[in-house]
Amino acid sequence: MTFCKSLLLLFLSLVTPLTNAAQRIERWQTASGARVLFVESHALPIVDVQVDFAAGTAYEDQAQAGVASLTRELVELGVAGMEETQVASRMADVGAQLSGEVDRDRASLTLRTLSMADKRSVAFELLRAILSTPQFPAAVFEREKARSVAALKEALTRPETLAKRAFWSAMYGAHPYGRQATVASLAALERAQVLAFHAAHYTAPRATLAIVGDLSRAQAEAVAEELTAALPASPGMSTIAVPALPAASEQWIAHPAEQAHLLLGLPALKRGDPDFFPLLVGNYTLGGGGFVSRLMKAVRDRRGLAYSVHSDFQPLAQLGPFEIGLQTKKEQALDALGLTREVLARFLAQGPSEEELRAAKQNLIGSFPLRLDSNREILRSVAVIGFYELPLDYLERYPENIEKVTLADIKAAFARRVRREHLVTVIVAGDRGSRP
Amino acid sequence: MRPTRLIPLLLALSLAVPALAETFEQQLANGLRVIVKEDRRAPTVVHMVWYRAGSMDETNGRTGVAHVLEHMMFKGTPNAGPGEFNRRVAAAGGRDNAFTSRDYTAYFQQVPAHELAEMMRLEADRMRHLTLDPEEFAQELRVVMEERRLRTEDQPQSLLFEQLTATAFQAHPYRVPIIGWMNDLENLAPADARSWYDNWYAPNNATVVVVGDVDHQAVFKLAAEHYGSLQARQLPVRKPQDEPPQLGIRRLAVKAPADLPLVMMAYKVPVIRNIEQDVDPYALEILAAVLAGHDAARLSTSLVRRQQLAVEAEADYDATARGPGIFYLHGSPSAGRTVSELEAGLRAEIAAVQENAVSADELVRAKAQLIAGQIYKLDSMFAQAMEIGQLEAVGIPHTQQERLLEKLQEVTAEQIQAVARKYFSDQGLTVGELDPQPLPSAARSPASAP
After folding, report:
1. Of all helices (H) and strands (E), which one includes residue A332?
2. Which of A26, A311, B71, B158 is the Cys-Cys partner for A324 at CB 3.0 to 4.6 Å?
3. Nearest Cα to Cα of residue A298 among A408, A180, A308
4. E strand or H helix at B326, and its extent?
5. What is residue A290's predicted lDDT score, i.e. its pLDDT?
6. What is the maximum alpha-carbon separation in chain A?
7. Which residue in B67, B88, B259 has the most chain A C-beta atoms within 10 A of its own C-beta, making it the best mutation to test that interface?
8. Cα-atom radius of gyration of chain B, to the nearest Å?
9. B234: which DSSP letter?
């Protein structure tokens, strides 16, 4: 008891400001070829680890859409020598938390554990087993498939799901980013396809580890080696095709909901793109800056048309979306759509004002410390830097890269990336009644 | 699982955590309480103002007014016009927002630490000088109705929860939704917001919570400077409106467009009123953790994995509240199974605890989650400020946080069995069922515009 107490006091005395994280990212490769990024921080007795594989939905075969998410769910549900409940129980015994997600590019496993040796060793051993010896038991596969089908069927009754799916299909068509699981594709999945997907994508060269917290560099190296030692050395990375830009379109989907869901956008930006900073700064004024953006003022404050409206860029390995989204009473759908287009058109034509540019920079630079004020936030940033191979000084140089952006940069970047001839629009549950 | 090694560690941590978490408190002459927690890990600060007034303090015909006023707090004072509050927070490199619950209304800003004084200036200004312009009010009411459509009308699970709550409570104001009934919103007047504001927005009904890279003495000085000149006011009398005992099971159904059925069971249970003498609320907390506190907990292991009766099964309970408590069990049945079967399955899980108690392993595991969760919370200044504010808002001194953890650690398997037997009977049970309605076929065939 006294030992632990003094251990915690020791943590207190070693406090180093988290904002130094920007300068303290270390990078190396494991013997197996996985990339590792590490930020040492002893302020709290916590270690966070995120393992990202290039195993997102973009890597599925069209006929097997849904296999990426199902694979990610199944990896932790049974390992060599332990069935799923034992794995979860052991994890719970030491207070560790395992979570994760799948997006277009990535399949992630995120582990948070206490850093005391007897706790973290158990948690890391479980994660190692999950990474190296998942069993994909047939009965668990069938059950999880059925649960996925049930969840998808439910989601397909929701206006926001229908809008998102139609939006991505309209933007990407047959490109891998347009791929989406259907009830039929999920129901047709076989266990062998999950095994094959796992073997082809959960490999060392496709893996990135981000480690943040209460470990020394030597300990972090040992952990990274332990976690990745059994990962296969191949296949290596594969690339996702460059998406073609869609022709402008407008799609209305009927639904009984009281509110219409509106989405406008197009494929616009990839990670590491030089237009990133001009688009980020410009979008703050358009619809990224929360309560103070032009869209929020026009749609919510002046007209009371929506509870929220946003615009954002979602950069991916290949061109990810620019998206404007809002919900409004269905009778107001046309009105809100017209107003949104008007705000966008004016912004594209004129860009922000000097004053708006100043306010955007002031907030984006001023709020930079908030982006790095916890281990969790740092982990999120570092995982992106690692997976997308952004420069190690990305965080360090973030404020100066914001500061450098000019009005001309913003106008030029938006003119290149947000072109109306490629803008797709989806409206679910909107009332078109008064349309001429 | 070796409890002999784990237990001392758990105890040690529960004692040691407060060493990382010392707080400082001062009350101004006008009754405003200021609570400060220094956390120097990053040069940022969270500033929150908590008003002890939530939807449970509303009256008939004016439901939703607490939340509407929260929106109006961003609509200007003579010193800072509509939208100016948000603009200044953004200019300070900050984020801000607010939230309304049954028990309280709270406002927060996360900013670089040197901007704290500016945040206090802004919050103190709107604590007393809100304009409540009728045109802004009318406009904002439309926004709130959109929010209700978004969060409730088009969300089958929210509709079920709203109806279940309105059925479980008949006298106590917990029966009304926080966002208000739509018809009350449609008829809400600026005068309703004005009297709400005048009634409750006073320094003697507020607590300021500051967590971050600050010195507590400097914060007290700033608080006195900015909030000190506001006058204390007589607060309205709060009537208890106690819920009369429930005399038998209540059932309801909600039909809404959906695919997955849902059953929600609400048992009336106590919450913490006396930190030292209470036993049952702590036992109920640990019961909820044993049932659904982690991936290996009973409901998912038994109902989802082993029996495959449910695609989801959860338990929820909060031991801290100003009003009465509810212990929820809820879930969705697997394809081919019914909500009645799932309800029976959930009841069987409670019966198992009533008959055989929970194992020592499960107890230790549930407690391990609580302790780890407490340490993980230290990674977020926001979460730490939330915890302080929430406890204070329901009348539990935040300094008792450590004591609450100790009381949870002391819970025994016998006590859990006792609460399972005492409260989980049909007498105090309300069961709600979501009856999914298919979408009209038109909703499935998208049409393209010319």
Report:
1. none
2. A311
3. A308
4. strand B325-333
5. 86
6. 78
7. B259
8. 24
9. P
Q: What residues have CB less than 8 Å from B422, skipping those under 6 apart?
A: B280
* Residue B402 near residue B18 (C-beta atoms within 8 A): yes
**Would strands B33-38 and B206-212 be described as parallel, antiparallel, or unpaired?**
parallel
Nearest CA among A37, A42, A34 for reference residue A26: A37
Domains of chain A with bracketed CATH: 31-228 (3.30.830.10), 249-428 (3.30.830.10)
Q: State the amino acid at position A259 in one-letter form.
A: Q
Angle at A66 between CA A65 and CA A71, to 5 degrees: 130
* Beta-carbon separation of B19 and A8 below 8 A: yes
Residue of B nearest to A149 (CA): B335
The helices-and-strands tally (H runs, E runs) of chain B is 16, 12
How far is A328 from A300, CA to CA, in rounded Å? Answer: 10
Mean pLDDT by 10 residues, chain B (450 residues): 32 39 92 96 95 97 98 97 95 95 97 97 98 96 97 96 98 97 98 98 98 97 98 96 97 97 98 97 97 96 97 97 98 97 98 97 94 93 96 95 94 98 97 95 48
Q: Are A210 and A37 in contact (CB under 8 A)?
A: yes
Are A193 and A64 contacting, i.e. CB atoms less than 8 angstroms apart?
yes
Q: Chain B residues with CB inside 8 Å of A12's CB?
A: 19-20
pLDDT at B449: 38
Query: In sequence order, which residues have a C-beta less than 8 Å from that of residue A7 and are 6 or more positions away?
Result: A45, A116
Contacts of A175 (CB under 8 A, 6+ apart): A241, A243, A244
ipTM of the complex: 0.92
- Residues of chain A in contact with residue B378, where contact means CB-CB under 8 angstroms, are 44, 46
> Considering only CA atoms, which of A378, A280, A435, A324 is closest in space to residue A49?
A378
Residues on chain B touching A151 (C-beta within 8 angstroms): 260, 311
**Whether B275 contacts B404, CB under 8 Å:** yes
Burial B167-198 (b: 16+ CB within 10 A, else e): bbbeebbbbbbbbbbbebbeebebebbbbbbe
Identify from A214, A263, A294, A301 which residue to disrupt to test chain B contact, counting B C-beta atoms within 10 A and taking the largest count: A301
Residue with token string 């076929």: B441
The answer to whether residue B448 neighbours chain A at the CB level (below 8 Å) is yes
3-state secondary structure of A298: helix
Dihedral, B376, B377, B381, B387 alpha carbons, nearest 10: 180
Position B440 scores a pLDDT of 82
pLDDT of residue B51: 98
Residues of B labelled catalytic? 70
A101 touches A69 (CB < 8 A): no
Show the CA angle centred on residue B157, arms to residues B155 and B159, nearest 5°.
70
Between A and B, how many CB-CB pairs are < 8 A?
250
Using CB atoms, pick whichever of A2, A157, A302 lies closest to residue B257. Answer: A157
pLDDT band for position A179 (cuts 50, 70, 90): very high
Beta strands in A238-308 (DSSP E): 249-253, 259-269
Tokens representing A322 are: 């620019």
Are B308 and A143 within 8 A, CB to CB? Answer: yes
